[in-house]
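Annual report, structural modelling task.

Input specification for the magnesium ion complex:
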Amino acid sequence: MNIPDNARADILIQALPYIKSWAGKTVVVKYGGAAMTNEGVRQAVAQDIVLMGCVGIRTVLVHGGGPEIDAMLRRLGKEPAFVGGLRFTDEETMEIVQMVLAGKVNKDIVALIQREGGKALGISGIDGGLLRARRLAKGGADLGFVGEIVKVDAAVLDCALRDGYVPVVSTIGTGIKDDDNYYNINADTAAAEIAVALGAEKLILLTDVPGILRDLSDEGTLVAELPRAEIPGLVAEGVVAKGMIPKVECCARAIEGGVSRAHILDGRHPHSLILELFTDAGSGTMIL
Ligand code: ADP
Ligand code: MG
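The model returned the following structure:
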């Protein structure tokens, strides 16, 4: 790139106050959807995560894997099914979710971060008792082994963070007491609960749209700032639907739980993470 030296220095110096203020803080990033299927974007996210670690941000990466799970279900002759943005998870689907998320997607992300020079540690919500869940009851609809989180034990994350690892979390969890089922937990929701449990400063959800749109077909209708109180109305009107429902709801939950800021960003744009953290170029939707 043909950038004059003074401009290069300017960019670094402009980032200085942000870098200083972020050192030692905790940021939880959730990554899924289209941001995960494009190779170039996957690499850019991994580079951002490594950079965040280098400037002293305690970074936790929580991942989904919807497209990979869909692809594996289809290979095995099963059609993916959703209810209100959540995957209907029968016993066989749960087994596939576990294999794809904890076995494949998780390790691929860990390897990618390490290729970019970072230290990553892949764990599922089962490991260290991180995520404990029970069968989600949502409006009477039977979602099978979709779990709602009952308890987060973030000790395993603290251990990894203390030793300089980026924990990479796949969001399956175990039942409580004598319930020995495994549960498929929406990754947005898990990211929010983990952010609360860690006392994180920021929750960032990377997805495949610019943020919350009033009209999905028009990116000009981006809602830059959304007060929590307006969320139920937008869901009731159907403006916020499908996979965006757990996102807005969990951003609200994170804020209520003490996380200072929650953002929904376009993960398709390379380096949207470091632009959000280290510049004043606000993008996406911030929940207030
Ligand atoms: P991810 O894999 O990142 O969790 P999801 O597919 O679960 O992605 O959720 C994001 C999707 O939510 C978008 O691709 C879009 O189709 C849908 N969506 C529904 N309502 C809205 C809205 N108002 N604004 C933006 N996206 C919306
Ligand atoms: Mg989703």
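The first strand starts at residue 26 and ends at 31.
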